[in-house]
């Protein structure tokens, strides 16, 4: 049995923190904004969906996300995974290409564009591991 979130509320709190870290990072944030790859993530086990896109003029940070499908943009790529897979990924313990091949992550759309973002987001792994260590030790993998 892997590291598990206490429930959907904790999952969303932690994911909001990760997205904020990436959005506000002086290196990652602008690169992710400039890449401009709108994405939709579905987390089946916690019954949640989040849509993420590059921040637009006048919006804070480099990324904008919304926890529903009531959006005014079309995702370029869609991914579906468990909260456990997301947790492993952000700790640098889940290889996306392998997870896709083994169907731990189901994808549609421009997967190549999403995979191109992985090198940009790698610095968040250490940041997230530090947050897990300090505040959510039950999530450590």
UniProtKB/TrEMBL annotation:
It comes from uncultured Solirubrobacteraceae bacterium. InterPro entries: SCP2_sterol-bd_dom, SCP2_sterol-bd_dom_sf. This is SCP2 domain-containing protein. Residues 73-120 form the SCP2 domain. Signal peptide: none annotated.
């Amino acid at each position: 049995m892997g590291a598990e979130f206490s429930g959907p509320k904790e999952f969303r709190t932690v994911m909001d923190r990760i997205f904020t870290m990436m959005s506000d990072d002086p290196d990652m944030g602008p690169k992710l904004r400039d890449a401009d790859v709108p994405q939709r993530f579905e987390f089946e086990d916690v019954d949640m969906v989040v849509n993420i896109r590059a921040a637009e003029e006048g919006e804070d940070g480099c990324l904008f996300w919304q926890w529903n499908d009531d959006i005014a943009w079309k995702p370029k790529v869609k991914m579906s995974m468990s909260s456990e897979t997301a947790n492993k990924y952000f700790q640098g313990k889940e290889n996306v290409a392998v997870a896709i091949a083994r169907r731990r992550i189901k994808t549609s759309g421009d997967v190549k564009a999403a995979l191109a973002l992985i090198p940009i987001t790698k610095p968040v792994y250490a940041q997230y591991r530090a947050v897990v260590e300090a505040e959510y030790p039950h999530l450590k993998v």
